[in-house]
Structures are given as C-alpha cells and as structure tokens.
Amino acid sequence: MIGILLGLLAAALLVILLLSLELKSLRDQMAYINREDKTNKRLNLGFHGFFLDSLVMEINKYIDQGKIKEEELSYEKEKIKNQITSISHDLRTPLTSIVGYLDLLEKTKDPEEYQAYMETLKKKTKSLQKLVVDFYDISLLEDKNYQIDLEDLAPSMVLEDKIMEYYKDIEDRGIKLAIDIENSDLISSNSQGLSRVYSNLLSNIKNHGCQTAKIVHKRQGDQVLTTFSNKISPAEDLDVDKIFEKFYTGQKSRNKGSSGIGMYASKVILEKMGHDISADLEGDLLTITIKY
C-alpha cells in the first residue's frame, strides 16, 4: 500500500515538475516574442495535457491577431504618410505657380501681358482655394459623427441641373455627350450631396474623357441606377481598382494638377446616404455606376 502511495506521489511530483518546466518555457517564449518586434514566432508546447493545449491555442490566436493589427497599423501609418506627401505636393504646386506669376506681374510693363498674368493668377488662386475646401470637406466627411440629412427626392432633377451646368464645357472639350434620363423616381437622399457627386463625375468626364461620353439614369428592375460612361486615352494610365482611393490619380491626372479627392469624396458621400458607387474599365471605356 505504501509502495502504491509513494508511486502516486512520485508521479504527481513528476507531473508538477513537468508543468512547472513547461510554464517556464512558455513564459520564456512569451518574453522573447514581446521583446522581438519582427518575430513571427508562436508558442510551442512540449508537454501536452492538463488544459495546456487549449491555453496555448488561445494565446497563439491572440498573438496572430496582434500581428495582424500591427501590420494594419503599419499600413495605415504609411498611407497617412503618403497622403501628407500628396497634400503637400498639391498645395505646393499652385502656391509655387502663384508666386512665380506674381513675380512676372511685378516686372511686366506690357498691359496685355499684365492682363494675361492676372487671368492665370485668378485660375491658380481658385484652384488653390478649391483644394483647401476639398481637404476640409474630406476631414468633415470622414468624421464618424457627421451625418447627412435625407429627404425624398428625384435624383433625375438634380442630375439634369448639373448636366446643364457642365454640358457646354464638355462639348467644348470635343467630347460628344449623350444623355438618357428616363425616370424621376423618388428616393431617400440629399440634394446637396448628390449635386456634389454629379459635379465630381461630370468634371471627371470634362477633364479626363475624350471623344464620347454618355449619362444614363433609369430604373432596372427594382433598382434605380445612374451611369457615367466615357472614353479615356491610354495616357491616363488608370488603375480602376484604385479609382476611389483618397488622393489616387493616374499619371496624366497628376500632371494636370488633379488631387484625386473628387472620386473618393463621391464614394464617401454616397455611402453616408446609403447608396453605392462602383467603377468598371473595359478597353478605353470607363463606366461609373451609382446604385441608389
């Protein structure tokens, strides 16, 4: 009997010893993981049983989630860094140009040159003003607490007004614009929000389209859709998967001074109103679709 008890005691002491060694090993592994930022190491278990397997599995899940969050944070930091660089570039370019034209304005004695420089300065100043307003609007739109008031309205009415505003400018750019507006269904939305979105998309056609463009607004089944389609030149170098990213521009758009805010702002505004926007590029035809 005593022999059996001594055997059980020895087995219990052995288990306690193994558990102690395993817990020390796990502690040392955790210390290493916490110390080394770049390690992909997870906890390894040498002694199994006694709830250790499930404990280590949960700890490894926590470690994996922490690594994912670190990667996401690193990505966001790099994204913010690039955005700041983009903002600095977008503001610096018109400012440098304005300073240069002010210098020319100061030196010229030719009335025609003076007038030409003044007209250019007005355009550059308006461009800079628009950028500042856009950056402010984006910060406002991205605020989770910022809400857009909704009302029942007909998007077709807002769309027609905006098309009238841009029609001549688009045609003057040599772009033949076709219009097909079939209905005036009421939806829950915001007229100012839609007006800004339509303005951004029409401006996109005017600045980056070529040859032909078409705007269609109609009901398809139980869905009201608006599509903006236009041809683009190969030089636009457009990545359609990035078109709604903040500050994204193709190379040609960047050279034209585009900030890449308009499409991003359109997406944010539409989502806050409960709508959806998507883009598709087939060959040289870019199509932007709004689903209400």
Question: Can you tell me about this structure?
Answer:
This protein has 292 residues and is an alpha+beta fold. It contains seven helices and seven strands, in the order αααβαββαββααββ. A five-stranded mixed beta sheet has the order 2-4-5-7-6. The longest helix is centred in the first third of the chain and has 56 residues. The protein is elongated.
Total DSSP E strands: 7
* Biggest sheet, spatial arrangement of strands: 2-4-5-7-6
Largest sheet: 5 strands, mixed
- Which structural class is indicated by helix and strand composition? alpha+beta
Count of runs of 4 or more consecutive helical residues? 7
Helical residues, percent: 55-70%
Terminal residue distance: 83 Å
Radius of gyration: 31 Å
Strand content: 15-25%
Q: Calculate the mean pLDDT score and round it.
A: 83
- The best one-word shape is elongated
The H/E string reads HHHEHEEHEEHHEE
Spans with pLDDT under 50 lasting ≥5 residues?
none
